[in-house]
Specification:
By secondary structure, the chain is an alpha+beta fold. Helix content is 16%, strand content 41%. A 6-stranded mixed β-sheet has the order 4-5-1-3-2-6, with no helix packed on it. Strand 4 and strand 5 form a beta hairpin.
Length: 140
């Protein structure tokens, strides 16, 4: 059986690392929400699982080759010392419940980082990109 992954950041549709670029092509299963807190790490987010917050994501069925590529992208280490830690979480997708891989940010990486209260990286990135454009660059 092929594993499932929940993506919540740049791997979502329209994101900078859209998961659709991987081969064999991941199969979209549906949108989902997980319990967690989403942090802005600059060019990408990180989630800390659990708690009262909600994080928006997308669930995909992926081939083992894609899982290995995602592990590399997320800098997963066998001893959990990498940038992200691969977790297994049961996720409701519509009427079904699916066991999913979720890449949780290593807790040492969130100190001083801003919480994304909406739990939606794509909306947050679009909003902050718009804010950045509204300021003119200083003249030399």
């Amino acid at each position: 059986m092929m594993p499932h992954v929940l993506v919540y950041g740049t791997l979502r549709r329209g994101g900078r690392n859209d998961i659709a670029r991987y081969r064999p092509a991941p199969v979209f299963v549906g949108e989902a929400v997980i319990a967690g807190t989403l942090y802005d790490l600059g060019a990408y987010p990180g989630v800390v699982l659990g708690g009262a917050g909600r994080v928006k994501g997308e669930v995909y069925r992926i081939a083992p080759e894609v899982e290995r590529e995602l592990d590399r992208l997320e800098e997963v280490a066998d001893d959990d010392s990498g940038e992200y830690i691969r977790r297994s979480v049961r996720v409701a997708v519509g009427a079904q419940s699916v066991e999913c891989l979720v890449y949780e940010i290593h807790p040492t990486r969130i100190a001083g980082r801003r919480v994304i209260r909406s739990g939606d990286w794509i909306a947050h990135a679009a909003e902050t990109e718009g804010e950045a454009r509204s300021f003119s660059q200083p003249k030399e």
